[in-house]
Known about the structure:
Helix content is 44%, strand content 15%. It has 402 residues and is α+β, with helices and mostly antiparallel strands. Mean pLDDT is 81; it is low at 33-75. The chain has 2 domains: 59-94 and 242-400, Phosphatidylinositol 3-kinase Catalytic Subunit, Chain A, Domain 5; 103-235, no CATH class. Strands 3, 4, 5, 6, 7 and 8 form a 6-stranded antiparallel beta sheet that branches. The chain is globular, with a radius of gyration of 32 Å.
Amino acid sequence: MRKCILILWGGIWFMNSVFLGVTLCFVFYGCQKLNPLLKEKADSYSSDRSDGDNEIINNHGNGKTKNLLSKDSLPSPNFPNSDHPLIPEYIKIRYGDSEKVSLEDWENLVDSDRVENLLLNGSILWRKTKISIKEMGATDGNGKKKVIFLCKIFQGGKYVRAQLKIPQRYFNDWRYELMAYRLGRKLGFILPPTVLRRLKKVDFKRIIPPVSDEILQLIEWKKRGGLWVEGTLRYWVETLKPGVIGGRKGDEEYILKIAKSLHPLNRKELITVTPVYLEIGRMIVFDYIINNNDRPGNLGTFILPNGEEKLILFDHGLSFGKEKGSQGRSKAFFDLMEMMPQDLTEKLKNLTKEELKNILFSDIGEKMDEDESHLTEIMKRRDIVIQKAERLSLKYGNEAFY
């Protein structure tokens, strides 16, 4: 009996050993077969991630664009001792709210060629022209007076409103308005269509109530072939509420917070949740290039029926000045940015001084003494933008661009 039990126990042990051995063989054989598949899958995943990490989402072109540096030379993102910059709250408004821009205004903004033609060739309804007189530089009644006209222009059964700025004794902002529009359009911004137009002095006499001789004396009339003046007509966006970003006032403090939030740590959220802040970033770079220190109030956002938000920039009469004292607002915004708009950076990189000269000064009237200095200063700031983009690229890699 005892012998039978030992034989039975030995048989059971032998069968378990055989089963374990067979199992281990199957496992080993399976691993050998599976290993190449896993390696192939891992290599594929690594390749996909590598390609994706070296492409940058571009909201202003088709598809994706490459970074400034070559794909092989880009470092991994690096965030040395970075505090996570907060993204300021954005109050979104819906299409249909009281602050919306009319679709007619939107069509006139994007179809700029048609509106430019209307501004150039349409009939000015002088009797319906309104005059605005501002006193600049003083609050005691001794400031320099500046006159602006708001006109109605009629053509083909349709009319638009336009702001007319003309050369005056103390102001050349009419010229800067046109220069900023031409450069902004070249760089892909939405600005109200603006044209250069010649007007006769006799036409101003048709305005009701009549323009006083004191005001007419402020205007720098040309005498060749009769008294006339050359100025800019800028499309007037009637339904846009200025100085508002979404449902918030776009003051200096708000813009500073937005500029500071433009950081690679916030990249994903900015792209998916608050893309309008990325548009503000493009605006900041543009303002720095043209040295526009009159911005926070001269912008507006509006909503299209599909819910898409758009940013429009206007009133650039105080651009192209000297950087001094409190007039360094645009630089302060720019210095805070740790992310750069890829499309705008590339366009600036490809901009030559000769091309810039043609954009700004072709058919703009007489050459002025400061024209060359404007070109030099713009190109100098352009170089600073490119240098900053390259520095951020080395610091953060592709995460530095949007």
